[in-house]
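anyone else get weird line breaks when pasting these?? whatever heres mine. first is seq + tokens for prot A
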Amino acid sequence: MNEDFLNIPLDRINPDTLRKMVEEFVTRDWSELADSEYTLNEKVEQVLQQLHDKRARIVYDNTTESWNIISDI
């Protein structure tokens, strides 16, 4: 993994903050939400499940000073 990225362990993020992060990610990365068969809550739950199953992870980019969720599949 690129050394400019840091993995952020889920247990270091307050659950309410984690949910807000995932909500922001979903609305940012899934702009077709209005046309989707899934609700915002359903998409948030899907991403949370992927994070807990270690099929995705939260990373912090030191260069851009921003975070993102990436897939590990």
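and prot B, same format (seq, then tokens)
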Amino acid sequence: MDDTDLCFAPATTLAAMIRARTLSPTEVVEAVLARIAAREPQLNAFAHLAAGEAREAARQAEAALVAGAPLGPLHGIPVTIKDHEAVRGMPVEYGTHLRRGDVAAADNAMVARLRAAGAIILGKTTTPEFGWTGVSRSPLTGITHNPWQHGYNAGASSAGAGVAAAAGYGPLHQGSDGAGSIRMPAHFCGVYGLKPSYGRVPQSPMTASDQTVHLGPLTRTVRDAALMLKVMAGPHPDDQSSLEAPPADYPALLAQRPRRPRIAYSADLGHARVDPEVAALVQRAVRAFEQDLGLPVEEVATPWGPRGPDLARFFWPAHFSRHAERLPEWRDKMDPGFVACIEAGQHITLAEYQKMRLVKYAYCTEIHHFFEEWDFLLTPAVSVAAFPADRLQPPHWPQHPWDWMSWAEFSYPFNLSQNPAASIPCGFTAAGLPVGLQIVGRRFDDLGVLQMSAAFEAARPWAMHRPPEVAGAVPSEAALPL
């Protein structure tokens, strides 16, 4: 295995080689750091690269191997952490000048678990300002570029993590998802992204987003996501909403399916616009469940779907209006779209907010009743393929000062309802841009979503695909279908 292959190798493979002492943590970290040095800042996936700390951690991991010390499941495996999360001694700046220079005094709960499992933290990945948008740019760090097309959107607030996963910056990358910010980078960058059930991975501290933010993995394989989730998940006193149940052995249970699942499909949730090329690739992926896996899929109505847009357009600016008091001092250094979003929400009253919460709860109840009949729902992950990152909307879509959600109507419903949902690569457009299929499961059935993802991955593998920015050549037409 040469250094390039090492950088794209799954964590499961690397961990086995490290345990067998056919590979050292230092070799892995040096190969990944060399790739990062060759590709940064062209892709601009890092808000902070901690190369020195990573090398020291690799040396310590190697010494532990030699000493025969107990090894965690991620011993010697490099990971990246989104800039929203606290890593001791590293900046935590949220992609904004308002937080520039902030440094975390301690690891948060999730990061501490990754370290305890033996993971080596490479640094912090980029995010839009306070994670407000589905477009990969911020006033602090600039554009984070899609590795399949320079200058194009890499998607949402975990964009740096999605780019890092696609570009071979090691196997494991942490993201968070408040309206699609794990699934959208997975879709745009051609990797796997899982938004677990709300509370599966504890937040530390909790966010002010009314329990819509979910922490989870972005990886190149489903098994790596299962491994990473197992390490991150479980209750924690820092998060009063964290789920009581300890994590299942997700990697060991991936191949099991206790009964024939009931699978539904919606092309548009009853209201969403979808680009024809994206729609065709998703429909082909849906047929793969029937033709390749022998699992019937039924196209269904989602009566609750059309009520989602009004909820999303209310709560998104309402939650970000907490930054309104900073506008007089910081407006000129903030993303203009973010400023427009804040201003759209700052006049919402508490009474209006409470009334809309009741509407939201009724909407979520409808979604959960839907899943009493169905085990899984398949949809597009996003309505469009990647587009220029200097725009909030693709040029052929309706324009708006802050509403980027018009092309992302499939993700936020399941943040509101707290269901697990994943984006898995399902094909490429004629221009060579990735497209994702969304797999949504019942609340708490994270294992089921991983199992369905693993089944689709086995039928339509994609991890051999590498972006042209990395591989050095545009994929041939023969290589594009999954």
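btw re prot B: Residues 350-373 form the longest helix (24 residues). Residues 3-479 form a domain with the Amidase signature (AS) enzymes fold (CATH 3.90.1300.10).
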